[in-house]
Design goal:
This protein is an all-alpha fold and about 170 residues long. Helices cover about 60% and strands about 0% of the residues.
């Protein structure tokens, strides 16, 4: 398990996808450069600017989700597992709302892979729901949920959302 404030995840592997968009590390000086995607305790109090994908609506949602994860996953001691699970389920609902907005933006903009991205979101929600069930049953604690939710959020943003943002920003300039 990971204690709050000590979350540390390595940069995810980035694989080329059928869009033909380059998804590897960005060259220095390119738009939206990553300052290294290692998340450490120094980043847990604020949404890291290096995690922006370059689409304001998505970046704003990611920042809100990040803040919500930090404030939600940390119920006071003595709160029963069912109550904690309910609180975490409200966070999962925030993820669902974000994904619905993101998918609508993708569909409306003509992004061909939006359905594939929506399936990815569905699997993501399924994993979060499994983590909530583990907290409710006592098999995991909230810090594990928090770590997993942050890990999933940043991996999603650093991989899939960057692909869409690159395509979206290029399409807007045409």
């Amino acid at each position: 398990s990971t204690s709050p404030g000590s979350w540390n995840a390595p940069c995810p592997e980035r694989k080329p996808r059928s869009t033909g968009i380059r998804t590897g590390p960005r060259p220095a000086g390119s738009a939206n450069p990553r300052q290294g995607c290692q998340m450490t305790s120094q980043h847990t109090s604020r949404f890291p600017e290096s995690s922006k994908v370059g689409v304001a609506e998505i970046d704003d949602d990611h920042r809100e989700l990040f803040d919500h994860i930090r404030t939600t996953a940390g119920s006071p001691q003595g709160v029963d597992a069912r109550a904690r699970g309910g609180t975490l389920r409200s966070l999962v609902a925030h993820f669902r709302d974000h994904f619905a907005r993101e998918e609508k933006l993708m569909e409306n903009s003509g992004f061909r892979e939006w359905r594939d991205h929506a399936e990815h979101h569905k699997r993501f929600i399924g994993r979060l729901e499994q983590r909530v069930a583990a907290v409710e049953s006592g098999r995991a604690d909230e810090s594990e949920f928090r770590s997993d939710a942050l890990d999933m959020l940043f991996r999603d943003a650093l991989n899939r959302d960057v692909e869409f943002a690159t395509w979206f920003n290029h399409a807007r300039r045409r």
